[in-house]
Design goal:
The complex is a heterodimer of chains A (259) and B (142). Chain A has nine helices and eight strands. Chain A has an eight-stranded mixed β-sheet with strand order 3-2-4-5-1-6-8-7, sandwiched between helices. In chain A, helix 3 packs across helix 6 and helix 4 crosses helix 5. Chain A is globular, with a radius of gyration of 18 Å. Chain A starts with a strand and ends with a strand. With 142 residues, chain B is an alpha+beta fold. Chain B has two helices and seven strands; from the N terminus they run βαββαββββ. Chain B has a seven-stranded antiparallel β-sheet. The longest helix of chain B has 18 residues. Chain B starts with a strand and ends with a strand. Classes of the chains: A alpha+beta (259), B alpha+beta (142). Chains A and B meet through helix 7 and strand 6 of A and strand 4, strand 5 and strand 7 of B.
Chain lengths: 259, 142
């Protein structure tokens, strides 16, 4: 499946935006971690910004970055969002309330659902082309990208793909140690020729073992499903023919080749 | 038109797991199959003595596999995984109580060297029971 890459957004400590990430992904600069500034998406009205969760703000800020790199209107894109844990902080807070007063706030409840980020985004952007929200644990990046690519080629529409992990509090973090936020947003198009950044050939291949993480990538991100996308993005910072694998299961991977 | 034996020669599914009874018609972008195995008490997809409507997805995937082998003019389709399901709608809880033959239709929406995307529908007695879309991704050589 061949798809165009129109724009990219990234957010992680050390990767405040796509231009800052490219030298590391190209292998010409060493990675250096710096805390991210407070994440404050501009497209959310201030009341929504206050009511939303850190997970929502992370996903939407990454999406805004990608939007700023394309002339395509957000209303013309379908949405495909993917996250392994989604809003773990909200899940934790709900459980604390359930163990105490049991008076769950409706706002907390609606922030806890897996598709809350795409919901806030579609309302803020008036994006009505449909939103899909998927979860596939540690394989969420590859599974989401495959779904988004399939929608691009089957429906012939641009798709905004966003994959994100936000930190989990204890005790959830003991079993799922997501300690730093990572988010990737990519505008995919059905026109591989002439796409602003490049084009990918997407395929599935059997693998004998789960692909290794890039050597530069901080081990602290190994619990982040979205961080699997950095190897995929590195193909865009290298010559055509560059290939990366994003695991789909213990024995299958998505193979991304820059055309 | 293909009968059950001709279908079994074209897909890797063997014995009772080869679910389709016939291919009634096919062309470059569609295939129309029938099945009677939904009423078979020995159907290997039965759980708790009933055949869930979700089994229709496997029937449709086998129809797509037959279609792939017919398109390739090959004895066997390329090895593939059912990589994604979308917009699946189920109108009945189970298939084994449908008295009529099952009809399974699949329409090819996209095909390239990496995979294929089909819309599908399964029904009986003139009513559509299950429909949706799936993406098959090839894992074997062309």
């Amino acid at each position: 499946m061949r798809i165009g890459i129109e724009a990219v957004g990234v957010l992680a400590p050390g990767f405040p935006d796509w231009s800052a990430a490219q030298a590391v992904l190209a292998g010409t600069s060493a990675f250096a971690s710096h805390p991210l500034p407070p994440i404050s998406p501009q497209s959310l009205p201030s009341a929504e910004r206050r009511r939303s969760s850190p997970t929502v703000r992370l996903a939407i800020a990454a999406a805004e970055q990608a939007l700023s790199g394309t002339a395509l209107a957000p209303q013309d894109m379908a949405l495909f969002f993917s996250s392994a844990e989604a809003a773990g902080l909200i899940t934790h807070q709900l459980c604390e309330v359930l163990a105490g007063t049991r008076e769950v706030s409706p706002t907390q409840f609606h922030n806890s659902v897996h598709n809350a980020p795409s919901g806030y985004y579609s309302i803020a952007m008036n994006a009505k082309r449909g939103a899909t929200s998927v979860c596939r644990g540690p394989w969420s990046f590859g599974a989401g990208l495959l779904g988004a690519a399939a929608q691009v080629v089957a429906d012939g529409v641009p798709v905004l793909y966003v994959c994100y992990d936000s930190p989990l509090p204890a005790p959830l973090s003991k079993t799922m140690p997501v300690v730093e936020p990572t988010a990737i947003a990519i505008v995919l198009t059905p026109q591989p020729e002439g796409a602003a950044i490049g084009a990918w050939e997407v395929a599935v291949q059997p693998v004998a073992a789960v692909p290794a993480w890039p050597a530069w990538l901080p081990p602290a991100w190994h619990a982040n499903a979205a961080a699997r996308g950095f190897a995929v993005l590195s193909t865009l910072c290298n010559a055509p023919g560059a290939t990366a694998l994003a695991p789909l299961s213990p024995d299958l991977a998505l193979r991304i080749t820059r055309c | 038109m293909l009968n059950h034996e001709a279908i079994a020669e074209r897909i890797p599914h063997a014995g009772a797991m080869c679910l389709l009874a016939s291919v009634q018609a096919w062309d470059a972008t569609s295939i129309h199959c029938t099945a009677t195995s939904h009423r078979d008490p020995a159907n290997p997809l039965r759980e708790s003595a009933s055949l869930s409507a979700w089994a229709a997805i496997e029937y449709a995937a086998q129809a797509a596999a037959v279609h792939g082998s017919l398109l390739l003019e090959a004895a066997r389709p390329r090895a593939a995984v059912l990589a994604q399901l979308r917009e699946v709608r189920v109108a009945v809880p189970r298939l084994d109580t449908l008295p009529g033959d099952l009809t399974i239709e699949a329409w090819l929406r996209h095909r390239d060297p990496a995979g294929a995307i089909y819309d599908f529908a399964a029904g009986a007695d003139g009513a559509r029971c299950v429909e949706g879309r799936f993406t098959l991704m090839f894992t074997g050589p062309a």
